[in-house]
Specification:
By secondary structure, this protein is of the alpha+beta class. 29% of the residues lie in helices and 23% in strands. The N and C termini lie far apart (56 Å).
Length: 776
C-alpha cells in the first residue's frame, strides 16, 4: 500500500480509505452519460434481427424477397451472406475426465442449418429507419421444420433425448472432473455422517438496465472497422472479434465503449449482432446501428446460472469435514458462450472449499447443450453457488447431527496459524481470520436477541427464521493489465487502463490511488478505459479483480513517473538525480527546502529545451502490470425472515454482513457494491427463474412474468468491515464486486429453511413453494 501523508488535508479527503463520492454521478444523474444508443453517426442505417420462433428445427429456406422490396430497405442478409466470418466458441482449455478436450460448438453470426433456441438469429434487415427495418424483418419468411426440443440439462443428457448436434453424442460437451474420486469415495465410506441435498441453481435473466446496442462503421480508405458497443473491456473484445471472427489484424478494428448500464458478465464477449452491423457497414459504405429491445434481450442476452446439483458433505464423529462432493449437470443453452463452461467446473472447484479446512473435494459436472438461450457468466459466475452449496450442506448436517451450526462452522474454519493455506482446490489462501470475523457478525446481528424477535413474530401469527451465509470466494485468475499516466497540457492527468467501468465507479478509487501515491490534485485526474486504440494490454472487468489489477498497474506506472521526475527535477533544480527526494507530490533536493511540485515540473518540461539525452521530456509513463494472484474476499451474512403462513410470502426483516475485503480504498463504493450483490442474490433466492415450456418456448419472456426485486422487497442493510490486508498485491485489496451474491444466497435460503423447520426447498422460494412446505 502506498505511503499516505496523514498531515495533508487533501490526502485525508481524497486518499485511500476515504468515502469519496463517485465522480461519475453528477454526469449520470443529470442524464448526460453517453451510452451506445445515445450515439448517432452521420448517415447511419438501422439493423433489426430476425429471430427463430422455434426452439429446435431444421432451416429449409429463408425468404427475403418480400422484405427486400419494402420501403427504405437497404439489404436483407442470411447465413449464406456471412460465410466469410469465423465462429464464436468456447475459449476455455477444459478437458473431460478421460483427458480428451471438450467438444466445442462453432457458432456463426446467423443460424445456417438448424435453429437451437427461441431467439436464434436467422437473418437481419438493414433499412433507412428503425421502423422500416422492423417492418421488413416481420416480412422475412422462415420455412423451418420443427423438431422436438429439450430444455433441462439432465433431460438432454438422458437416452433418447433430442440431439442438437451430430458431433455431440448425448448432448454432453464436457464430462468434467476435479479431485481424486477414489480418495473422496474412501472418505465418504468411513464418515460417521453424510449429508446429501439436491440443489437447483435456478436460471436467471441478467436484466441489465441498458439493453445491448452496437454501431458498426467501415473506413474504406484505411481498410478498418470501428465498433461502438457496450462491453466489459475493449482490449479482449477487440482481440476476439478481430482474430476469431473478422479474421483481420487487430489494428484493423477499433472498439469504443462509452458508459455501460450494467452487464454482470453478460456483455463481456462478442454476440452475433456485432458481426452483422460491421458486415453491413462495409457492404453498404455507411454506419449501421442496432439496439435491442427488452423482449429481445430476454431471448438473446446470455442467461446466468442453471445447474442441477447433488451436493454431499462427509463428516467424522467429531463433526470435522472429511470431504465435499458436487455431482451436477450444467445447462449451456443452444451454443457455448466464450466462458460458459467455467461456472460449473473451475469456479465450483475453486469456491466449494469456502473458508473451511476440508481436506478433500470432488466436482463432477456434465455440461450439456439444450434448446435454450446460451448461458454465460453472471455476477460471481459459480463463486456464489459454491458457497451456497457448502452453507446449505453445513446447516443441514448440523440439524441432522444435532449440533450447533455455529460451533460446527468454527470447528472447521481454517485458522490464522495455517496461513498460507494450500486448499485442495489448488488455491493458496494468504490471509484471513474467519472465526473472529464470524464472531463479529454474530454480535453485530444481535444473534442472542433472536428469541425475543421470534416471539414477537409469533405473537402476530408470523413464522420467523434466521440464516447464516459464511463465504469465501476466489477472484478471477491473473491477467496482464495496462497502467498509463499522461500529464496533459491542460493540467490534468489521464489514467489509461484496460479494465472497464460498467457501473462500479472505477474513476474515483483509481484517482484516490493515484492521488495518494503521487499527490496530483484529485480533481485533475481523468480516466480512459473504453478505446482499444489506447491499449496494449487489458483484462477487462470481471471476477472482482479491477482494483487489484488496474490499481497495481497505476502504482507501477506511478513509480516510473517518480523515477523520471527525479531525473527531470535534478536538471531543473541543478542537482544530481540521486539527491532528489519525492514526497507529498513534490520533488526536492535532500536536506534543503529547494524543490518543485510534480504538476509544475510536468508543465515546465513542456516549455524548456532542448534537454540532455538522459533527461526525460515528459513525466508520462506506461507499463503492463504482470498479473496479480487471485485474492480471497470473505465474510459472513446473517439474515432474518418473516413468513406469512397464510400466503407463504417471505419478508426479509433484518440483514447484516461483515466482510474482509482487505484494504478498502473507498468504503462508500465498497458498501454500494455489497448492497448490489446482496440484492441480486435476494432476487435469485426469492423471485427470479426462467421457465420454458416443453417445446422450448420461454414462459417468462418479459417483466409481466419474470420477477425482479424492488425496493419494497428489501430491508436496510447493515454493513461492517473486518479487513485483513491481502499479502499478494501491492494495494492489499481483495475484491468486492461479487461477494454480495456469495453471502446472500445461503443467508436467505438458510433463514427460510430454518423457518420451515429445516425443510429444504430450492430457489426461488416463491410464496407457492413456501406455503406448500409450511402446510405439508
Amino acid at each position: 500500500m502506498p505511503d499516505i501523508n496523514l498531515a495533508d488535508p487533501t490526502t485525508m479527503k481524497f486518499g485511500i480509505g476515504q468515502p469519496v463520492p463517485r465522480q461519475e454521478d453528477p454526469t449520470l444523474l443529470q442524464g448526460r452519460g453517453r451510452y451506445t444508443d445515445d450515439l448517432s453517426v452521420a448517415g447511419q442505417a438501422w439493423c433489426v434481427m430476425v429471430r427463430s420462433p422455434y426452439a429446435h428445427g431444421v432451416i429449409k429456406a429463408i425468404g427475403t424477397e418480400a422484405a427486400k422490396a419494402m420501403p427504405g430497405v437497404l439489404g436483407v442478409y442470411t447465413a449464406a451472406d456471412m460465410a466469410e466470418y469465423g465462429p464464436m466458441r468456447s475459449v476455455l482449455p477444459l478437458k473431460n475426465k478421460d483427458g480428451s478436450p471438450l467438444i466445442n460448438v462453432l457458432r456463426g453470426p446467423l443460424a445456417a442449418d438448424k435453429v437451437r433456441f427461441v431467439g436464434d438469429p436467422v437473418a437481419f434487415v438493414v433499412a433507412e429507419t428503425k421502423l422500416q427495418a422492423r417492418d421488413a424483418a416481420e416480412a422475412v419468411e422462415m420455412e423451418i421444420d420443427a423438431l422436438d426440443a429439450v430444455t433441462e440439462a439432465s433431460a438432454a443428457a438422458a437416452p433418447g433425448a433430442p440431439q442438437l448436434y451430430d458431433h455431440i453424442p448425448g448432448n454432453v460437451v464436457l464430462d468434467f472432473r476435479f479431485g481424486d474420486a477414489d480418495k473422496v469415495a474412501e472418505a465418504f465410506a468411513k464418515a460417521a455422517h453424510v449429508t446429501t441435498l439436491p440443489i437447483r441453481n435456478n436460471r436467471i435473466v441478467v436484466c441489465s438496465m441498458e439493453p445491448r446496442s452496437a454501431i458498426g462503421e467501415w473506413d474504406a480508405a484505411d481498410g478498418r472497422y470501428v465498433l461502438h458497443v457496450g462491453s466489459q473491456g475493449v482490449f479482449g473484445l477487440r482481440n476476439q472479434m478481430a482474430n476469431d471472427i473478422l479474421k483481420v489484424p487487430v489494428e484493423k478494428l477499433r472498439i469504443l465503449t462509452g458508459n455501460v448500464g450494467g452487464s454482470f458478465g453478460m456483455k463481456a464477449s462478442a454476440y452475433p449482432e456485432y458481426t452483422c452491423v460491421l458486415h453491413a457497414a462495409k457492404l453498404l459504405g455507411r454506419p449501421v446501428k442496432w439496439t435491442d429491445d427488452r423482449s429481445g434481450a430476454f431471448l438473446s442476452d446470455c442467461h446466468g446460472r442453471d445447474h442441477e446439483v447433488e451436493a454431499s458433505l462427509a463428516l467424522d464423529a467429531e463433526g470435522k469435514f472429511l470431504a465435499v462432493k458436487l455431482v451436477s449437470y450444467g445447462n449451456m443453452g443452444g451454443y457455448l458462450s466464450t466462458v460458459g463452461n467455467l461456472m460449473g467446473t473451475g469456479n465450483f472447484s475453486k469456491n466449494i472449499q469456502s473458508n473451511y479446512a476440508t481436506p478433500l473435494l470432488l466436482v463432477e459436472t456434465k455440461n450439456v447443450v439444450t434448446n435454450t438461450t446460451p448461458v454465460s457468466a453472471y455476477r460471481g459466475a459459480g463463486r456464489p453457488e459454491g458457497n451456497y452449496f457448502m452453507e446449505r450442506l453445513i446447516e443441514t448436517a448440523a440439524r441432522e447431527m444435532g449440533r450447533d451450526p455455529i460451533a460446527l462452522r468454527k470447528l472447521n474454519h481454517i485458522k490464522p496459524a495455517q496461513f498460507p493455506f494450500s486448499a485442495p482446490s489448488g488455491s493458496v489462501y494468504d490471509s484471513g481470520d474467519f472465526s473472529a470475523l464470524f464472531d463479529k457478525a454474530l454480535a453485530a446481528a444481535d444473534w442472542n436477541g433472536y428469541a425475543a424477535r421470534k416471539a414477537a413474530s409469533e405473537s402476530r401469527g408470523m413464522v420467523r427464521g434466521r440464516g447464516i451465509g459464511n463465504f469465501l470466494e476466489c477472484t478471477a485468475p491473473p491477467m496482464k493489465e495496462q497502467g498509463e499516466l499522461v500529464f496533459e497540457e491542460d493540467g490534468s492527468v489521464t489514467i489509461v487502463t484496460g479494465t472497464l467501468d460498467y457501473g462500479q465507479g472505477h474513476w474515483t478509487p483509481f484517482a484516490q490511488v493515484l492521488h495518494a501515491k503521487l499527490g496530483v490534485p484529485f480533481d485533475s485526474i481523468k480516466l480512459v478505459q473504453g478505446d482499444s486504440d489506447r491499449l496494449i494490454a487489458g483484462g477487462g472487468t470481471g471476477g472482482s479483480k479491477s482494483l487489484m489489477a488496474s490499481g497495481a498497474a497505476i502504482l507501477e506506472a506511478a513509480d516510473m513517473v517518480i523515477e523520471k521526475g527525479r531525473k527531470a527535477a535534478g536538471y531543473v533544480l541543478e542537482a544530481a538525480a540521486e539527491d532528489i527526494e519525492f514526497a507529498d507530490g513534490r520533488f526536492a533536493i535532500a536536506g534543503t527546502d529547494r524543490g518543485i511540485g510534480i504538476m509544475e515540473l510536468a508543465a515546465k518540461l513542456r516549455t524548456i529545451g532542448p534537454l540532455p539525452q538522459d533527461v526525460p521530456n515528459a513525466l508520462d509513463s506506461r507499463t503492463v502490470f504482470n498479473e496479480a494472484p487471485m485474492a480471497y474476499p470473505n465474510g459472513c451474512h446473517i439474515c432474518e425472515v418473516e413468513i406469512d403462513p397464510d400466503t407463504g410470502i417471505v419478508k426479509i426483516d433484518r440483514y447484516l454482513s461483515v466482510n474482509d475485503f482487505g484494504v478498502i480504498v473507498n468504503p462508500l463504493l465498497v458498501e454500494g457494491q455489497a448492497h448490489g450483490g446482496i440484492v441480486q442474490g435476494i432476487g435469485q433466492a426469492l423471485l427470479e427463474h426462467v421457465v420454458y415450456s416443453e417445446d422450448g418456448q420461454p414462459l417468462t419472456g418479459s417483466y409481466m412474468d419474470y420477477g425482479l426485486p424492488r425496493a419494497d422487497d428489501l430491508p436496510s442493510f447493515g454493513f461492517e468491515s473486518a479487513p485483513d490486508p491481502c499479502k499478494t498485491n501491492p494495494l492489499g485489496a481483495k475484491g468486492c464486486g461479487e461477494a454480495g451474491c456469495a453471502g446472500s444466497l445461503p443467508a436467505v435460503m438458510n433463514a427460510i429453511s430454518d423457518a420451515l423447520g429445516g425443510k429444504h426447498i430450492n430457489m426461488p422460494a416463491t410464496p407457492e413453494k413456501v406455503w406448500a412446505a409450511l402446510h405439508a
